[in-house]
Specification:
The complex is a heterodimer of chains A (637) and B (101). Chain A is an all-alpha fold and 637 residues long. Chain A has 26 helices and two strands. Classes of the chains: A mainly alpha (637), B mainly alpha (101).
Chain lengths: 637, 101
């Protein structure tokens, strides 16, 4: 594989961004051209990614010296690429799902004021995401990390006339900022320990753990935990997950691409990339516990939501938790495998939700839907495929990947504190996942229609440019697990990724046979579906929660309110009174105004000399001359 | 019999002092102006007397310069006084105090 291929892969979306961004004014009248350029830019990247993938599959990776394009910060950091199995998997997800979502957007964004702006941002996002996964050092990863954060902010607040959209954009940006700060500190720690940020030297030298300890904790543990703070922010884990549900204010394809398939998985990718460090530092159990708690917590919230996109958002948070369990317990390949399958089925579900919104004049409350399957058969089928995949229905994608993670969690109990508890919580979450997904399906697509007559009259299936990507995503959502994941830890995917640094962890035979786990997971998943069927097959979720627990869950555990009371308001008040009133208005303005007031005061004294009477001036002049003369005559010698 | 130099210098000092006092205490612009001329001519008298006493010609040369400057000053000064009078109908310098700070 040559560097040139990777450069073309990387630059193509940037070119698309520049064309749509700079010449958008002239492209505005021609939506097909503008959207076509955007999609084409990603298609070029997709083709390059496939070539890179085939090349890596033949054992031809791009690592170390060969990948360096030029030295950036002399001797410390270079601009270079690191392309191995992990990278190509990410590349295929980003460009593959990304391309389909670009095509879908051509139809979805039809007639929007900011059509070219939208495609410019989307291409810029793909570019930043590619930098994130292609870089051969933490600094490039950070550049991409910030780039996708920026694009996320821009696209969440895409409809900036809406107050809620701009608020959500700001919330996402600020919450991510907290995580990014951790990431930065992690990079500083690594740099202090290794004197470089390139992956190669760091992973090589990390073996010799003879670094100075920081407050009695090993340097590697500090660095990995700080990097994990970055992942918590970007991948929406407890306690920083609050931005992701609000991020649904953006256009739906954006939610599919950025807030389900790619950007939010950056944290998982980062940990998988740093597998060597996490293995040595033994910080995986913190990652796994945060992951499983998030998975469970978000799933319980999803049960009582009525907004389609919000259910999907909490579901995403929950599934990201699973991925962190995977990478936390050392089953990096399984975590990344779940990332891949999740990208397909969650991307698919968001796009189908978009299709429903498109037909329902932007209605999102599923209590006002019902019986949609007759009007929108393709949307219904594709959503069903996605939901079955996430619920872990046997032989669909989610079944394989989720099961691998749970299996690894059980088997890791010798290394990870409470591995079996993680397994049980994960299993309960799997039940909840199946339940809330099918609650969504039954309420939306089955039962009697509750659609308002006016909307119902033009209820329609989406145009081909939208349903074809749905169908194209539905196929891998269903079968990709079967293609890549059969055989659990002996599957094709595991063999493909085993050469990635740090991926191969010897669990020994502790894992045992996966078949009992598969059976248990399937039963749990089907139970969830059955429960949802019994409860919601012809019942609408009640508007008002009936008891205290329901009220607590329906209000998302009041987490937003708690944050608002204990963090946002104190900071706002401190900023208002300390920073603004005291420091800015008081001290800074005080100094500036004080200087002016002093000058004015002195001036007011001096101006009295300026009487305007010529003779006063002359008197003073004469007195002056007399004094001078007196001095020279009588005192000079 | 030529007079001693002292007489001339005392006369010059007296004229100069009268000029200064006139400038300081009178309020009429024309009078002030005349007092300034008086001071200039007191200086001229001193120049001429010392020139004669030392037998050198430079002092008398300076006097010509002073007279030329004084002539120019008269032209401008009177013009100013005339235009002040046109605007304010007074040449009392106490009433011309627009530049008061």
């Amino acid at each position: 594989m040559s560097k040139e291929l990777i450069i073309v892969l990387l630059i193509s979306p940037l070119v698309g961004f520049l064309i749509n961004g700079l010449f958008g004014k002239w492209l505005k009248g021609n939506e097909k051209l503008s959207g076509g350029i955007g999609a084409l830019a990603v298609l070029v990247s997709l083709i390059c990614s496939i070539i890179a993938f085939v090349s890596v599959d033949r054992g031809n990776t791009l690592e170390g010296e060969a990948g360096i394009v030029y030295s950036w910060i002399s001797d410390y950091v270079s601009i270079g690429f690191h392309v191995d199995a992990l990278t190509t998997v990410m590349l295929l997800v980003i460009t593959g799902v990304g391309f389909l979502i670009h095509v879908y957007s051509i139809g979805y964004m039809h007639g929007d004021e900011g059509y070219t702006r939208y495609f410019a941002y989307l291409n810029l996002f793909v570019f930043a995401m590619l930098i994130l996964v292609l870089g051969n050092n933490y600094l490039m990863m950070f550049v991409g990390w910030e780039g996708v954060g920026l694009c996320s902010y821009l696209l969440i607040g895409f409809w900036y006339e809406k107050q809620s959209a701009t608020d959500a954009g700001k919330k996402a940006f600020i919450v991510n900022r907290i995580g990014d700060f951790g990431f930065l500190l992690g990079m500083f720690t690594l740099f202090a320990a290794f004197g470089t940020l390139d992956f190669g030297p760091i992973f090589e030298n990390a073996q010799a753990d003879n670094f100075e300890k920081i407050f009695g904790v090993s340097t590697l543990a500090v660095a990995t935990l700080l990097l994990f703070v970055g992942a918590i922010g970007k991948s929406a884990q407890i306690p920083l997950y609050v931005w992701l549900p609000d991020a649904m204010e953006g256009p739906t394809p954006v939610s599919a691409l950025i807030h389900a398939a790619t950007m939010v998985t950056a944290g998982v990718y980062m940990i998988a990339r740093s597998a060597v460090l996490y293995n040595l530092a033994h910080t995986g159990h913190i990652v796994a516990w945060i992951g499983v708690l998030t998975a469970f917590f978000a799933a319980t919230i999803a049960i009582k939501q009525n907004d389609i996109k919000r259910i999907l958002a909490y579901s995403t948070v929950s599934q990201l938790g699973y991925m962190f369990v995977g990478v936390g317990v050392g089953a990096y390949a399984s975590g990344i495998f779940h990332l891949v399958t999740h990208a397909f089925f969650k991307g698919l579900m968001f796009l189908t939700a978009g299709s429903v919104m498109h037909a329902m004049a932007n209605e999102l409350d599923m209590r006002k839907m019902g019986g949609l399957r007759n009007k929108m058969p393709i949307t219904h089928i594709t959503f069903l495929v996605g939901a079955l995949a996430i619920a872990g229905a046997p032989f669909l994608s989610g079944f394989w990947s989720k099961d691998e993670i749970l299996h690894s969690a059980w088997g890791s109990s010798s290394e990870i504190w409470g591995g079996q508890v993680i397994y049980i919580i994960g299993l309960i979450t799997a039940f909840l996942t199946a339940f809330y997904m099918f609650r969504l399906i039954f309420v939306t697509f089955y039962g009697k229609s509750r659609v308002e007559p006016e909307v119902e009259s033009h209820l329609h299936e989406s145009p081909a440019v939208m349903w074809v990507p749905l169908a194209l995503l539905a196929i891998p959502s269903a079968i990709i697990g079967l293609l890549l994941g059969v055989g659990g830890h002996d599957s094709w995917f595991h063999h493909f990724t085993e050469k990635v640094a740090g991926f191969k962890v010897e669990h020994g035979d502790a894992l045992g046979s996966a078949i009992p786990f598969m059976i248990i997971s399937s039963i749990v998943g089907i139970l969830g579906i059955v429960f949802a069927w019994r409860r919601y097959k012809d019942r609408v979720p009640s508007a008002e929660p009936t008891n205290a627990l329901q009220k607590l869950v329906a209000n998302k555990y009041y987490i937003d309110e708690i944050y608002n009371t204990f963090i946002v308001q104190p900071i706002k008040n401190a900023s208002h009174f300390l920073l603004w009133k005291l420091f800015d208005s008081g001290i800074i303005d005080g100094i500036v105004n004080g200087v002016a007031a002093l000058v004015r005061f002195i001036g007011s004294l001096l101006r009295r000399l300026q009487t305007g009477l010529v003779q006063v001036y002359i008197v003073s002049m004469v007195i002056g001359i007399v004094l001078f003369l007196a001095y020279y005559l009588f005192f000079a010698n | 019999m030529p007079l001693d130099l002292e007489y001339y210098l005392v006369l010059s000092a007296l004229l100069f002092t009268i000029g200064v006092i006139g400038v300081l205490i009178r309020r009429n612009a024309i009078i002030i102006f005349m007092c300034i001329e008086l001071m200039l001519n007191a200086a001229n008298l001193a120049f001429v007397a010392i020139s004669r006493s030392l037998g050198q010609v430079e002092g008398q040369l300076f006097v010509f310069f002073v007279m030329a400057v004084a002539a120019a000053e008269v032209a401008i000064g009177l013009a100013i006084i005339v235009s002040v009078f046109k605007h304010r109908e007074t040449i009392n310098v106490d009433e011309v105090n627009s530049l008061k700070g």
